[in-house]
Amino acid sequence: MPLSATPRLGFIGAGRLARCLAAGFARAGYAVQAVTSRSPHSAAQLAAALPHCRAVADAQAVVDNADVIFLAVPDDNIGTIANSLHFATGRQDSIALVHCSGATSVDVLAGAHAQGARIGGFHPLYLFSGDEADVERIAGCSITVEADPELAALLGALARALGCAVLTLAGAHRMLYHGAAHYAASFALAALAEAADIWRTLGFDEAQTLRALLPMLGGTVQAARAKGLVGALAGPVSRGDAALLERQLASFESLGADHAMLYALMTRRALSLARRREHPPPSLDAMSDVTQATLERAFARGASAS
Ligand SMILES: NC(=O)c1ccc[n+]([C@@H]2O[C@H](COP(=O)([O-])OP(=O)(O)OC[C@H]3O[C@@H](n4cnc5c(N)ncnc54)[C@H](OP(=O)(O)O)[C@@H]3O)[C@@H](O)[C@H]2O)c1
Q: Could you tell me the pTM of the whole model?
């Protein structure tokens, strides 16, 4: 039996992600039929916010009342819940069980697949805060889909109904895919934390640092959108200020090997961007040498967090 183009949707889990996706799908005209969660209260709250949706007693009741079931629970629980589900003979291949994790393999749904159900991944590249405004904010983001071609087409249509772009992923690459995405999320925060630590030694508290640097980050993001990574690059590396970079690296070395190593590694990435320019600054090789020397000294000293 083929998948329905207008599937009944169900949610197992009623947390931050489920609340946004379910509301977005309902707004786009999809029938979100059933929801369950660990606590009946969460399920009832989500169901009450959606037209014609029922809070049901357990995950099996969601499977029995929906065609595409989103497992929107913490990653550690996905496999256990999936393995507890039964897919009724005769309609298995018109049912899809889909998880929303970036890091967890779709293979954890193998028990459902062995019963004939379709399985897949539907990972929004978005940080859900649980705020109602997430439903609007998610538009323009990307959702990564992993599934057989028929289910991938249906999940793609669901992603587009939320106003999102669609990426497709081969399962073997999940770790690098999800890990690298951290550079736009937690690692961006970690980079700001490094700046805040250093500015604290100069007498600025974290609130002052964020007030000063968040608008700068916002401007950088806008420049990247408008000009791409190479075009948006600014700072000493982009200008080819080799002597200035050398003084900066020395200052970071004076803070400790950990700070110097991080700064030199990021500088190395900035140098790679600068090399991709149509007219790269002539001093890039010299800058690369001084950066490499800093890195080697830092590694030799051993970088423990300070
Ligand atoms: N948050 C994000 O930014 C984000 C982004 C992309 C992908 N994801 C993925 O989305 C999934 C859900 O994340 P989330 O952030 O929405 O988590 P969350 O806010 O912590 O919500 C998890 C939900 O799952 C429910 N739950 C936990 N154990 C359960 C069980 N055994 N049976 C039924 N329901 C259970 C919780 O129940 P109660 O409310 O009833 O306690 C809660 O409603 C994860 O796979 C995560 O990797 C999250």
A: 0.91
